[in-house]
């Protein structure tokens, strides 16, 4: 015989006998897939007006550079290599800025608190941003290749010459690697500095001030001349735009990117994962 329990208010409480209460189902929380995070991060790059035009500038600059080659280059220079070089110069500036803004926008636009609340482990968010950044860099290179090929055909038709396809698969692969590494340097600066203005200034120091200073040091100090390829990351990456890359040059690329890219990126990631988001 069961007895009812009387609450202070005078109303009988439910029976507490074992087995009478319904068992609660355990809530299963499914983590957000990485592919969905990548789609969100990709959409973020197009959501704002500035972001849209920055991404669109990849195609716009490719077309303008191609038109400039057709208009002003001599007939002997109408070949695929000339078009690829002309297109690659502005993209080498735009792509790193896209990479750094993918990180700093979370702090400059104050969306980081929402992002890191929905995905508490920040490493997954940073990984999604990194994968999207690399994907944009690779796709941009293929867009540039396509625009350059179209320009090569058009320029050859205008000049009455046969089109010259003087870029091999190996050379194009090295160009893609060089631009992706340059984009990752911008991404690293965004992770380390977490401020759009500071990261942009830091990138131009990396790409303009630092190479000039190291080149001047190599010109006036003979002892540094042989060390420059092992110290100057821009000098080492420039070898990827040449016809062939030797084993020693690959080693120089590995050493310089380790010092100027991978170690700062690891330290910056440690700060991103631990620092308070304001």
Please write out the topology:
Layout: E1 5-6, E2 12-13, H1 34-47, H2 49-72, H3 80-108, H4 112-118, H5 122-159, H6 169-193, H7 196-220, H8 222-225, H9 228-231, H10 233-238, H11 247-274
Antiparallel strand pairs: 1-2
Structural class: mainly alpha
N-to-C SSE series? EEHHHHHHHHHHH
How large is the share of residues in beta strands?
under 5%
Low-confidence stretches: none
Give the rounded overall mean pLDDT: 84
Largest sheet, spatial ordering of strands: 1-2
What does this structure look like?
- The chain is mainly α.
- Helices cover 73% and strands 1% of the residues.
- It has 11 helices and 2 strands, in the order ββααααααααααα.
- The protein has helices spanning 34-47, 49-72, 80-108, 112-118, 122-159, 169-193, 196-220, 222-225, 228-231, 233-238, 247-274; strands at 5-6, 12-13.
- Strands 1-2 form a two-stranded antiparallel sheet.
- β1 and β2 (12-13) form a beta hairpin.
- α2 (49-72) runs parallel beside α5, α3 crosses α7 and α5 (122-159) crosses α6 (169-193).
- It is globular.
- It starts with a strand and ends with a helix.
- The relative contact order is 0.10.
What labels describe this entry?
278 residues, mainly alpha, 73% helix, globular
Q: Can you give me a brief rundown of this structure?
A:
This protein has eleven helices and two strands; from the N terminus they run E-E-H-H-H-H-H-H-H-H-H-H-H. The protein is globular and about 85 Å long.
């Amino acid at each position: 015989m069961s007895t009812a329990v009387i609450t202070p208010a005078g109303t009988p409480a439910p029976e507490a006998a074992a087995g009478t209460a319904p068992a609660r189902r355990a809530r299963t929380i499914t983590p957000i897939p990485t592919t969905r995070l990548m789609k969100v991060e990709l959409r973020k790059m197009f959501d704002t007006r500035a972001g849209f035009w920055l991404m669109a500038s990849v195609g716009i600059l490719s077309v303008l550079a191609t038109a400039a080659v057709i208009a002003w280059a001599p007939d002997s220079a109408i070949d695929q290599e000339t078009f690829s070089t002309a297109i690659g110069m502005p993209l080498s500036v735009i792509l790193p800025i896209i990479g750094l803004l993918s990180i700093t926008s979370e702090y400059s636009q104050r969306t980081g608190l929402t992002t890191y609340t929905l995905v508490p482990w920040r490493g997954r968010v940073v990984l999604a941003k990194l994968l999207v950044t690399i994907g944009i860099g690779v796709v941009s290179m293929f867009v540039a290749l396509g625009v350059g090929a179209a320009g090569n055909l058009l320029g050859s038709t205008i000049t009455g010459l046969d089109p010259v396809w003087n870029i091999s698969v190996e050379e194009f692969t090295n160009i893609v690697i060089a631009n992706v590494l340059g984009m990752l340097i911008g991404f690293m600066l965004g992770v380390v500095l977490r401020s759009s203005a500071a990261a942009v200034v830091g990138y131009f120091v990396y790409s303009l001030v630092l190479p000039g200073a190291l080149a001047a040091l190599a010109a006036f100090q003979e002892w540094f001349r042989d060390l420059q390829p092992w110290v100057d990351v821009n000098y080492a990456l420039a070898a990827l735009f040449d016809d062939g890359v030797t084993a020693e040059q690959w080693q120089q690329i590995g050493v310089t990117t380790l010092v100027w890219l991978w170690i700062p990126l690891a330290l910056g990631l440690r700060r991103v994962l631990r620092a308070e988001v304001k």
